[in-house]
Design goal:
- By secondary structure, the chain is an alpha+beta fold.
- The chain folds into two domains: 50 residues; 215 residues, Beta Barrel (Porin), CATH 2.40.160.
- It contains two helices and 13 strands, in the order H-E-E-E-E-E-E-E-E-E-H-E-E-E-E.
- An eight-stranded antiparallel barrel has the order 1-2-3-6-7-11-12-13.
- The radius of gyration is 32 Å and the shape is elongated.
- The N and C termini lie far apart (67 Å).
Length: 272
């Protein structure tokens, strides 16, 4: 009986010691993980105070005013090193001809419902582009209230869309109104004095012509956001787009395949 009690006490001691070691090990691992997490958070706080941009990925939206039009963009960035990120960018833009001017037919009896029109415009020229490139950090913020400067460069494929531009004109008999686009048959009427107004934005979408092309772009980005998790930036750059063949935008004007434009963009977004 004494022997059994003795063995029981020894077994209980060994089991208790093992449980204590196991619990101590789990506690130690948990404390190590907490310490590493605190260390990482402190490092991020210190980097934010010093103006260092550190993130896993960023999502950016923006509007750009171009020397020959306008556009909207979405960009996804993934940081590879503290000084370099890969960027993937989608843009929807429109190229306008420098000769475009809006007019209003003041003699139109239906003035209150007519739209201003662009005299001689043959097509709206829209572009949808997908680009891949890199963003390289040139200068940190210095502090959380400073400005970081980055250099972006990218290139990729683009699809151009030519949409016929319609105008309202008086019927040749003077009994009604017609909506016409520029054709050799109606060129005299399209460019004549009988224009009442624009034909409307929604006309011509079922007549789109697709023009495949490609582009390249470079820019400087100035990020003035106070907090590193928020993107508030101004981007200034230029791009070149090429669409083989002729891309008529205005009647009686030379048609182009190569388009160069400078732009300025306002950007906003978030980082993680």
């Amino acid at each position: 009986m004494v022997k059994k009690v003795f063995l029981f006490l020894i077994f209980s001691f060994v089991l208790g010691h093992a449980q204590a070691q196991f619990t101590l090990g789990r506690t130690s691992d948990r404390e190590d993980r907490k310490a590493q997490k605190r260390k990482k958070i402190n490092a991020l706080i210190r980097q934010a105070e010093e103006g260092t941009l550190v993130y896993t990925k960023q999502s950016v939206f923006g509007f750009q005013a171009r020397s020959n039009g306008y556009g909207f963009l979405y960009e996804l960035g993934k940081m590879k090193t503290p000084l370099k990120s890969n960027i993937y960018r989608v843009e929807l833009t429109e190229i306008k001809h420098p000769k475009e001017n809006k007019f209003q037919n003041l003699s139109n009896p239906f003035l209150f419902i007519s739209n201003p029109y662009i005299y001689g415009k043959v097509n709206n020229f829209y572009q949808l582009s997908l680009g891949v490139g890199q963003q390289r950090l040139l200068g940190q913020k210095g502090n959380k209230n400073g400005v970081s400067v980055s250099w972006n460069y990218l290139g990729g494929l683009s699809a151009g869309f030519l949409k016929p531009y319609y105008v309202q004109v008086e019927d040749s008999t003077g009994t009604g109104v017609r909506h016409i686009k520029y054709t050799s048959k109606d060129s005299a009427l399209f460019l004549g004095p009988a224009i009442l107004g624009a034909g409307g934005f929604w006309r011509g979408w079922n007549e789109l012509k697709v023009k495949p092309g490609f582009f390249t772009k470079t820019s400087l980005r100035y990020d003035y956001g106070r907090f590193n998790e928020v993107v508030s930036a101004l981007e200034i750059g230029c791009s070149v787009e090429y669409y083989p063949g002729n891309n008529p935008i205005m009647a009686l004007q030379p048609e182009k395949s190569l388009f160069f434009q400078a732009y300025i963009a306002i950007l906003f977004g978030r980082r993680k």
